[in-house]
Amino acid sequence: MVIGRFAPSPTGPLHAGSLVAALASWLDARAAGGRWLVRIEDVDPPREMKGAAELILQQLDRCGLRPDEPPLYQSTRGDHYQAALDRLVEQGWAYPCGCSRSDVAAALTARGEAIARPVGELVYPNTCRGGLGGKPARSFRLRVAPTPGPTSGPACDPVPVAWHDRRLGPQCQDVAAFVGDFVLRRADGFWAYQLAVVVDDAAQGITDVVRGEDLADNTARQIFLQRRLGLATPRYLHTPLVRNPDGSKLSKQTGAAAVDLADPLAALRSAGARLGIDVPGTTLAEWLERATAAWRVQWLAPMA
After folding, report:
1. What does the UniProt keyword field contain (predicted)?
2. Which of 56, 206, 254, 261 is 20 to 30 A (C-alpha) from 95?
3. Among residues 51, 5, 50, which one has the least CA distance to residue 196?
């Protein structure tokens, strides 16, 4: 059975872009006769807005997008993330790191390497792979290398991860060159997105991840981590982004306003148009039924 999910961070209400992602994931699950879940990714308290999780659930309900079981809150899942981290440490895939961001930047500068990749992340130079060197542990990182071991591989062992995106087509990323050994638990003690999402997708039996194109760069890291934990890899579909007039991604960070739900049907029509869905309907239920049929033809028929 297909199981999809919508996994918002409660940093603010749904905006036009996040409604597109929610609708796409709902349509994908419903078109396949599957289940649709909602997961609140509340593992970054400094960025969260009080009451945002409840508001998001209310917005989804107003649009007729209702999950098949109560939402899962990542803030309740710390023991599961710790168990996964412990397993990775025991197997030699994860290790403690004593580096600050400035330490990483200084090391890269000293080696004459570029400071940041297009995603804005520093490519970790594997400083602590062989030990902390007397520094206190700040975070935990996943060893990105073909095989585990205290000193396995130079700074950029090629680790290509290939996958097929249902919309974007064949994809491949050299995880070592793109981000290097990446964080699983942050220096502030909070869980990193990559670990939490992988553990929870597996726990919820997610078969199909449908989300915004801005998250496509995370996919290779998540697949690599899934393999290290012996977990199944879902199918992926990354939807088009909603952009500001200047071409930047519409997001809470760029001041995106809450989606206007004075007329939920109009909001859904607008979100559907972004996905290439243009169907008639005078009620929410009627429009969603026809949009589901259109999605089945557009995205599921080619997979049959």
Report:
1. Aminoacyl-tRNA synthetase, ATP-binding, Ligase, Metal-binding, Nucleotide-binding, Protein biosynthesis, Zinc
2. 206
3. 5
Query: Which residue intervals of the chain bear CATH 3.90.800.10?
Result: 78-185
97 is in an annotated binding site: yes
Catalytic residue among 50, 135, 249, 252: 252
Q: In the chain, which residues fall in CATH 3.40.50.620? A: 3-76+201-300
Q: Among the residues of 32-100, which ranges form H helices?
A: 52-62, 78-90
Kind and range of the H or E run holding 177: helix 175-178
236 is in an annotated binding site: no
Say how many Å lie between the first and final Cα of the chain, rounded. 14
pLDDT greater than 50 at residue 154: no
Phi then psi dihedrals of residue 174, to 5 deg: -85, 100
Active site residue 135: no
> And the tokens for 261?
């739900």
Q: Is 193 annotated as a binding residue?
A: yes
Least confident range from 50-54, 151-155, 204-208, 272-276: namely: 151-155
In this structure, the chain runs to a length of 304
Question: 171 has which bridge partners?
Answer: 163
What is the CATH code for 3-76+201-300?
3.40.50.620
